[in-house]
Amino acid sequence: MGRLTNKVAIVTGASAGIGRATAKLFAAEGAMVVAGARRQDELDSLVAEIEAADGRAVSLAGDVRSEDYAKALVALAIKKYGRLDIAFNNAGTLGEAGPTTEISEAGWNDAIAINLTGAFLGAKHQIPEMLKQGGGSIIFTSTFVGYSSAFPGVAAYAASKSGLVGLTQALAVEYGPNNIRVNAILPGAVDTDMYRTMNDTPEKTAFVTQLHALKRVAKPEELARSVLYLASDDSAFVSGTASLVDGGLSVNRT
Predict the structure, then answer these.
(1) What whole-number distance in Å separates Cα of residue 3 and Cα of residue 26?
(2) Residue ranges of the domains in the chain?
(3) Buried b vs exposed e over 192-222: b needs ≥16 C-beta within 10 Å?
(4) What is the torsion angle, in degrees rounded to the nearest 10, for the CA atoms of residue 122, residue 126, residue 127 and residue 133?
(5) Which of 69, 157, 175, 195 is catalytic?
(6) Is the pTM of this model over 0.85?
(7) How far is CA 27 from CA 53, 102, 158, in A?
């Protein structure tokens, strides 16, 4: 049997990258997946892939900045599968980049709305369903940027993702007595569309690769396995953590 057999999981940002890899792994481990993202075509192809591998999944396109969308994802999980056990609030954006003094207020607000408020809205509506059945696991996708390392030109991204660590800790303490575990993963560089946008020259790619002790960037599937650990009962005594999955970036000085 899989590690998530008979569990129901919401995954946002599921159309690509870490979210897509995690949705597929969750399904392969027995979970019934509710996949969310903005792009319906990519969600349709994800569900088709999961079903072709004898997994179970449904999808709903929408914008995580909308509280109505957060409600709708939970409602779909309950309508289709009758419960909610796991939520991977992964949707995110790099946001407006550049010198901080030149970032627009709208660009700042958008990064906060997607990366931080979107995760908050997700958890706000996921937790009541988990309370009904005596527990659950919530995972957020933060980043090493602004936590163990920093880069110029991405202040909105760093601030919004760092806020997720505080949210993780607050929720873990508030709902720990109800057996709801809350954790965040902090990836190093991962070969996703966002990574390629940030590192669009051979020089940038080489620089970022060198930062890691492993001297390579991660594949989305490698991050998915860490999320699986936090979602499963293997991590039954793990809550409130900012879990670095960074290839040794935080300790590397060579």
Answers:
(1) 9
(2) 8-190+219-245
(3) bebbeebbeeeeebeebeebbeeeebbebeb
(4) -170
(5) 157
(6) yes
(7) 9, 43, 31
Q: Is 81 a catalytic residue?
A: no
Would you tell me how many other CB atoms lie within 10 Å of the CB of residue 19?
28
Fold of 8-190+219-245: Rossmann fold (3.40.50)
180 contacts 127 by C-beta, under 8 angstroms: yes
Note down pLDDT in tens along the chain; length 254 residues.
Answer: 699 999 999 999 999 999 999 999 999 999 999 999 999 999 999 999 999 999 999 999 999 999 999 999 999 999 999 999 999 999 999 999 999 999 999 999 999 999 999 999 999 999 999 999 999 999 999 999 999 988 899 999 999 999 999 999 999 999 999 999 999 999 999 999 888 887 889 998 999 999 999 999 999 999 999 999 999 999 999 999 999 999 999 999 99
Q: Do you know the residue count of the chain?
A: 254
Amino acid letter, residue 41: D
